[in-house]
Prior knowledge:
The complex is a heterodimer of chains A (301) and B (291).
Chain A: H1 2-11, H2 24-55, H3 60-65, H4 76-84, H5 87-118, H6 127-137, H7 148-157, H8 165-188, H9 193-200, H10 205-213, H11 218-234, H12 237-242, H13 251-256, H14 258-262, H15 266-286, H16 288-295
Chain B: H1 7-35, H2 52-58, H3 61-91, H4 99-107, H5 114-125, H6 131-138, H7 154-180, H8 183-191, H9 196-207, H10 209-223, H11 228-233, H12 245-255, H13 259-290
Helix pairs in contact in B: 1-13, 2-13, 3-7, 3-10, 3-12, 4-7, 7-10, 10-13, 12-13
Amino acid sequence: MSTHVDVRPKTTPPSADKDVPHSPRRRGRGRIIVSAAAYLITFVILFPLLWIMLLSFQTNDNILNHPFSLSQLTLDNYRQALDTLNLLVMYKNTLILAVVSVTIGLVISYLAAFALTRMVFRGGRRRTQNTLRFYFLAGLAVPVYILLFPVYRLDISFGLFGTYLALILPYIAVTIPFNILLLTGFLRDFPEEIEQAAVMDGVGLWRMAWKVVFPLMRPVVATLAILNVIYVWNEFPFAVTLINDPNMTTVSLGVSQFQGVYSVNYGAMMASATLVLLPQLAIYAAFQKQVIAGMTAGAVR
Amino acid sequence: MNWLTTRRSFALMVAPALIVYSLYMIYPILYSLYYSFTRFDGVSAGGFAGLDNYRQMAHDDAFWTSMRNTGVVLGIALFLLVPLGFLLAILLSGRVKGSGALRALVFAPAIIAPILVGLIWIFILDPKIGLVNAFLLAIGVPAQPQWIGGPTLSPYSIGLVYLWQQIGFVLTIFYAGLRMLPRDVMEASSLDGAGRWQQLRYIQIPMMRETFGIVTALVVTGVFKVFELVYALTGGGPVHLSEVMVSYMYHITFTTQQYGYGMALAVVVFVVGALASAATFLGNRRKGEVR
């Protein structure tokens, strides 16, 4: 009986093939449709970026009247952009702010996280440590906007307004809660044996923190460094509130002034935007995996 | 290891972070809270105002508009960004050739400075110089909607730009969640004859509940941080019709210099944002219990 059944499919007419849910042909066609959709959607998402790059080579007349025309592409916009903008100053300021605040922020966050998780007191009670950790983590719920005006007043009363420190201090403060969240999370899971061995060898506390434990934390620290650098690099609310000297302008603040600087010179505006955008995308392309890991740290384990 | 730890070295290690954090994060919150009960204008102390600043909000149409617009952005984020991000994660989850590269490309908008994102989208949405209306004209549609700068559409446009900016980020979190699903469940269901839709409906979505919760929480907190997009796209105008809560607070504080009222608005932004996050958190927990 079973042999009869086995033979049957061969005798069914070929048109019935279409009803079989996973016939190879149908699966192949489905895959092509899915791939086409994936490529198309990605292209649509990237299109705004390609569009401003295209506009940056158009004359102003074309931007207004024939934006789709490719007949009169020009480099004039870039010449004007480079003449008008002080890109070097913008990059220098942003780089100083990013390097200094991220380095100091990570060093002091690490020290605090180390003390909050790895130190052991007589009696073994950790109440102070847990309370302090909670105090730091509470900052995760604070939106920076509530800080803008008070920080502006603080900077003035400390005489810092107009200096890099006016921005560096709030940037450090804002990054501390998440730094401590991630660092204490990793430090807690970390076996005590390594420290015990080091103690036997007579290693002191500061050497322990920097030479023994810190090297093991490198991946977390790298993730946080990337996340923090991107934060400071793109930061706008503090920059627009605390900087009023053109020589202190950061990249984000400079971009916000493009419309005022160029008015209706759209081509030069788009050339400037491209000059800011391309380096950022290039760095992203080079460190894509680390950047994505850094920005989703905390949400993705 | 007790000999390692003295109170002095503990204090030395914690102090730098504790001082900077307390001075630039905790003290400012108390400062804002205090000045939200005053008529402070930056020069004279202005005197104690009790709850006047908070009462003023009730009669401030622009404040309610800013609340409504924040709600519009939140709605777009919850009902478009989250589901589209999930579908895109499924679409780009490996069966397509080069899907890793596509995921990285879709993530790109998330690393661009928000202020630059706003500037870029002016050239897409502006009624006169924008791509969308130029395209409509080119294909013979006479309508030239005021995507930004008009009285009605701006908050929706801002929500869509926010969606564009965040979708790669949301996708990445969903993708990580999808990869954590046990593979044998999918294989077994496939052998049992479950179609792709049934797998999605009965296996992947229910098993990703925790990821949906994380994404929702992140998106809700993110919406209350939207500022640069409004600043660049509309400046909050015309007449504050496209203002969101944060941009309106900024305007009151730094443009009109009504510091007392501005701080009251800042406190409300903080509280509303915290309540929204808390609601998401509780919602997540309850869903978890049902399971």
